[in-house]
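Structure tokens please, single chain.
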Amino acid sequence: MDWNVNWLAWGGIAYLLVIVNIMRGCRGRTRGWPALTVASMSCALFAVIAELRMVGRWISHGDMIAVSDTVPGMIRIITIAAVIGILLNIFAALINSADPGDKNSSVS
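Here you go.
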């Protein structure tokens, strides 16, 4: 089986960037948050592409057992990771777009 760990690196970078974005927003440093959001989401996309390339290599080598064993689990993991990543990026956007002087803001 030809394992590719690029997806793990890209996914880790995506989560690291969104956590940095949230931490910056909590400290009131809202400048540049859209770039961090785009970078985080781009790294998440690269992680999915790396997963698909790995499966594509298995298919091209005729290793259908590896595909049938791992793809059902990968789909669940990728879906959960995507939902968590989207929710974290929405949270970061809410933190960074909240006006610190607005008393009616739900997130501050």
